[in-house]
Amino acid sequence: MSRRYTPKIVTANRLREGDVVYLTSDDRWSLVHGEAELIEDEAHAQLRLLHANAQGRYVVGAYLADAKAGPKGPEPTHFREEFRTRGPSNYAHGKQADLGHV
């Protein structure tokens, strides 16, 4: 019996600043997890990951992360991904302060 596919998003780090970014359905890289494209088909997810990996001038370390549908877009389902949405944890400025996660 095959396993049911878990929805995914494509995430990476922006090459220039190192920020965590998420691939949107219109091929933008967003700092906001909720703007990511929620991919519910395994084959489509692999194509989107290939697309992300081809953008080596902009991002590095692209991978598929588990996510679920939420009221404001995709939400992380794993601690690591939840942690990454907050930005660096060693200081209280930048993305972490801007998004009110301090």
Features:
about 100 residues, about 25% strand, 5-stranded antiparallel β-sheet, alpha+beta, 5 strands, about 25% helix, single chain
Q: How would you summarize this macromolecular structure in one to three sentences?
A:
The chain has 102 residues and is an alpha+beta fold. It has three helices and five strands, in the order βββαββαα. The chain has helices spanning 42-53, 79-85, 95-98; strands spanning 8-14, 20-23, 29-30, 59-68, 75-76.
Structural features, described:
It is a single chain. With 102 residues, the protein is of the alpha+beta class. The chain has one domain. Helix content is 23%, strand content 25%. It has a five-stranded antiparallel beta sheet with strand order 3-2-1-4-5, with helices on both faces. The longest helix has 12 residues, at 42-53. The radius of gyration is 14 Å and the shape is globular. The mean pLDDT is 88. Residues 68-102 are annotated as: Disordered. This is DUF2849 domain-containing protein. It comes from Pseudogemmobacter faecipullorum.
Low-confidence stretches: none
Oligomer: single chain
What is the end-to-end distance? Answer: 45 Å
Number of domains: 1
**Mean of residue pLDDT?**
88
Indicate the proportion of strand residues.
Answer: 15-25%
Structural class computed from helices and strand pairing:
alpha+beta
Overall spatial form: globular
Query: What's the total number of strands?
Result: 5
- Roughly what percent helix? 10-25%
Helix segment tally: 3
Order of helices and strands: EEEHEEHH
Main sheet characteristics: 5 strands, antiparallel
The value of Rg in angstroms is 14 Å
